[in-house]
Amino acid sequence: MVRLVLVLGDQLSEAIAALRQADPARDIVVMAEVMGEAGYIPHHPKKIALIFAAMRKFAARLERQGWTVAYTRLDDAQSSGTIVDELLRRAEEFGAKEVIATQPGEWRVIAELDAVPLTLRQLPDDRFVATQAEFAAWAKGRKQLRMEWFYRDMRRKTGLLMEGNQPAGGQWNFDQENRKPPPQGIDYKGPMRFTPDETVTGVLALVAARFANNFGSLDDFWFATDQEQARQHLAHWVRHGLPRFGDYQDAMMSGERFLYHAIVGLYLNIGLLEPMEVCQAVEDAWKSGDVPINAAEGFIRQIIGWREYVRGIYFLEGPEYTSRNLLEHKRDLPGLYWGGATRMRCMAQAVGQTREEAYAHHIQRLMVTGNFALLAGVDPAQVHGWYLAVYADAFEWVEAPNTIGMSQYADGGIVASKPYISSGNYINKMSDYCKDCAYQVKDKTGPDACPFNLLYWHFLDRHRGRFANNPRMANMYRTWDRMDGQKRETVLADASAFLEKLDAGAPV
Length: 508
Ligand SMILES: Cc1cc2nc3c(=O)[nH]c(=O)nc-3n(C[C@H](O)[C@H](O)[C@H](O)COP(=O)(O)OP(=O)(O)OC[C@H]3O[C@@H](n4cnc5c(N)ncnc54)[C@H](O)[C@@H]3O)c2cc1C
Ligand code: SF4
Fold this sequence. Notes:
Layout: E1 3-6, H1 17-20, E2 28-32, H2 35-38, H3 45-64, E3 68-72, H4 83-94, E4 98-102, H5 107-114, E5 119-123, H6 132-139, H7 147-158, E6 162-163, E7 166-167, H8 198-210, H9 227-240, H10 265-270, H11 275-287, H12 293-317, H13 345-357, H14 362-376, H15 380-390, H16 396-407, H17 424-430, H18 451-462, H19 464-467, H20 474-482, H21 485-503
Parallel strand pairs: 1-2, 1-4, 2-3, 4-5
Antiparallel strand pairs: 6-7
Helix pairs in contact: 3-8, 7-12, 9-11, 11-12, 12-16, 13-14, 14-18, 15-16, 18-21
The structure holds flavin-adenine dinucleotide and iron/sulfur cluster.
């Protein structure tokens, strides 16, 4: 009997588990662009366009290979609007009772598929280096789930950058070399750009018509939308961007949206690239002497370390992870995250390029937008909703542990051993933003004091009970306690005044 093979928009790989189990001669591949997925949060229009365009091209590729694909376009009149209802509609159409699926990367969709009144198997998504069971076994009995230890196991497992049992270059981690402040200029012109073809142009028109009110610009769409293009982009970056990736991984520069970053998250996360092919390309470049070890190791750690680790945490912690709020932060997400005016140059740069590109790099996400939300005490569920909506690479399994865990410390220290907070000092060291900012990064109080300075002490003061005994934060509290009492009061009063302005919706 005919079976349905569900392929979701972030599972666009011929090697995906469900397709491997299916038979092109008798099974029907079901793919659907539905409002249920495109509209449950206000995704950036470029993200929606990327996924729909890549889905259409992937469906056409499967058809060329002999598969029958039942594809629903967003504007198809018969569309029922959700994945589950599309499955039921197609089951009736083709007389199918059985569905083969690959497990989705979001608890919500897993639960929806579990409830489908058909025989539906969710196969493990094995596009990753570690299985969920392997991660759970690694985590079992450990007091602290340190990424670094997990990463070393993944190095041993994959053999990447290994010389026998030993790490290449004599050490596991070259992070100390990867924190250079911004360079004078960038000699890399950024990611490879692709002119929209007919399929992409059709999708862009659809998205422009349907999602015109979403935050984010659709102009100048240049993403790769199929495997060949994504591979060309990867080869281009390995050659031109990777050599300096490590050095300037944490740097931020006005007007430089991509620096030396790989811009591969969006392609990896929808299946156009595989993690091991990306890592092997990087290892090969190092072996040929084209890139230094700090660049190769720094990058491979992000993929087989951080990426795998956060996925492990997401599935280990369960569906309620996204509602954690250890610090009981309740403030609404300020309008400046949706493009409202701000005098803070760092925030304007990070949010502005997010609006234009559906992209900001890790330090912009963690130490600018994430840091500000944490210092200001914004409700982590709202912060999570924002990150999930605005980045082209955002899917819950990877976004939530980064936001709820690493950035907002809302999971109580599972991902981060201390909150990632900083005053303006750090941003000043790692960027060129502060020199052109309306605020003064050196001012600790007063009308022009950098808001990160005010809010940093306000955060430490209001969470003293929780963090004063954290050995990694003792220095911060010592500095605060050494400050003159009158000055401390002024800092806290200025911070409160700033927060009141923020709450009132006044430009800050
Ligand atoms: C608050 C917050 C939210 C984030 N949300 C997402 C998200 O929705 N999707 C996403 O893929 N990444 C997310 N990240 C991680 C990271 O910022 C992005 O992977 C990275 O910026 C993507 O850009 P790139 O491809 O140029 O990465 P590069 O800087 O060039 O790094 C290479 C790759 O390493 C992987 N990687 C690096 N850091 C991480 C990390 N912390 N967790 C998982 N993978 C990592 C990604 O696949 C990335 O593409 C988030 C980080 C923070 C702090
Ligand atoms: S002075 Fe403060 S607000 Fe302005 S760019 Fe620097 S860190 Fe950001």
